[in-house]
Specification:
With 119 residues, the chain is mostly helical. It has helices at residues 10-24, 43-55, 78-87, 102-118.
């Protein structure tokens, strides 16, 4: 009976080592930014946070990347975000005024601005 010897190619070994290094160098930290939890005292911003939690949190958890891209590090102007919320873009659904009213959208934009400044 002949024993089968395992032979690993140098390419396979290199790929495994690079994959291990790539994951070893990344942070598994998720959640609150390093600056600590965000304290919101302005009522409009608090309302915007509620709109975010109801409509955005599922895809952009805490403003970070999830199913959708991160929001807390994008230097997008408010009019672009407003248009993207209303009309959708790519995988993002549109949110018509019946779902997010104009005042709610303004409060949401204020919350997103506060989120960017915080992180």
């Amino acid at each position: 009976m002949r024993l089968h010897r395992w032979r690993f190619s140098p390419v396979l070994i290199s790929v495994v080592i690079l994959a291990w290094l790539a994951t070893a160098c990344s942070s598994s930290r998720r959640g609150e930014p390093l600056t600590g939890p965000m304290t919101i005292t302005v009522p409009e911003i608090q309302k915007g946070q509620k709109v975010f939690m109801k409509n955005c949190q599922q895809c952009h958890p805490g403003g970070e990347a999830g199913l959708g891209p991160a929001l807390n590090n994008k230097p997008l102007p408010a009019f672009f975000i407003r248009a993207q919320v209303r009309h959708g873009f790519g995988a993002m659904p549109a949110f018509p005024e019946q779902e997010i009213g104009e005042e709610e959208l303004t409060n949401l934009l204020g919350y997103l601005k506060e989120l960017k400044q915080h992180g």
